[in-house]
Amino acid sequence: MPNQTQNVSVAIARLKSFHDELGILDVIACGDQAIPALRNILFERERSGLYQTRCRAVDALSALRAHNVLIEFLQVERQITDPIERVGEDAVINAAALALASVREQRVLELLLRLARRPVLTGVIGALGAFEAEAAIPALIDALEEDASRVTAAGALRKLGGRARAALTRTVDVRLPTETSESVSSVRRRRSALRLLAELGRSQIPWRVLRRLMRDKDTELAAFACEIGLVSGPASERKGIVGRLIELVGEANWMVQEEIEACLVAHSDSAREVVASYLSKTPPVGENKAARTETEGILRYVIARM
Question: Residue 177's beta-bridge partner residues?
Answer without folding.
Answer: 182
